[in-house]
Amino acid sequence: MKRYFRIAITALAMLAVMLLSAAITLRIALHGHEVTIPDFAGMSVSEASEAALKTGVDLNIENRFYSTTVPVGRILSQAPAAGSRVRHGWQVRVTESLGPQQVTIPDVVGESLQQASMEIRKMQLDLGTLAHIEAPGDPDMTLAQTPPPNAGVDQPRVNLLLSSSANVSTAFVLPSFVGMSFAAANHAAMGLGLRVALAGDVPAVPAAGLPMVPAVPTGTVMAQSPESGFKASRGDIVRLTLGAAAPVAPPVVH
To answer: What is the tens place of the pLDDT at every residue in 200-211?
Structure first.
């Protein structure tokens, strides 16, 4: 009986040693190839690439932003953060600084998608999100843009709201004219078949039946009624409130 008991104890001890050894081996396999992510902030792209190669992580430039504090061509931010422990070969996403903004956002409202794209890229900007709404007239005409012309931006990207002639109905979603110059807003509204009026005024309708205001005011659209997102139909009146300066926040295109 004592012999069987000693054999059982020995077997249990061997099993415990085997389990402990397996646990240690698994831990080494899981964590043996971990590396610490360096701090890439402030490095040039070439310096960051070299540091990533030495560390054993993969560097991916995910975004480019304007910055008044970080010189052009240097790393602005990273994810995961510096000091994080990751597996060998892990991808680190970084944002490259474009330096201070030195380009002007062009006014492409009323232009075709092709014309707008050429003008945006000519200013060394990127074509961002393209959204469509049903609208009368030619398809792929620019009805609105964000950011608005001459705005200060953090990314070199211009988003466009384009017209679509597919399944055109009498009603459509009203875009935002806030942040545009009056001329740009008036042009965009006319393209949708809307009649434009200044707050408190009555729009004039010329003989051709197309909406326009006889004396073209100057200034930036500060507010509109109805607001963007509401449904409108051809011939409806949109009233614009003008100001001397652009609003603090850029408009949101629905």
So the answer is: 554 444 434 444
Distance, CA of 174 to CA of 196 (rounded, Å) = 13
The H or E element containing residue 33 is none
* Residue 122, burial from CB neighbour count under 10 angstroms (0-12, 13-18, 19+): exposed
Region 34-97: CATH code? 3.30.10.20
DSSP structure class, residue 150: T
Provide, rounded to the nearest whole percent, the portion of the chain with pLDDT above 90.
20
Q: Where are the domains of the chain?
A: 34-97, 113-243
Angle at 70 (CA atoms; ends 68, 72), nearest 5 degrees: 95
Q: Nearest-CA neighbor of 174 among 183, 161, 158?
A: 161
pTM above threshold 0.70: no
pLDDT in tens, 2-36: 666 566 676 666 766 666 665 555 554 555 578 99
Long-range contacts of 121-127 (CB under 8 A, 24+ apart): 124/156, 125/156, 125/157, 125/158, 126/155, 126/156, 126/157, 126/158, 127/157, 127/158, 127/160
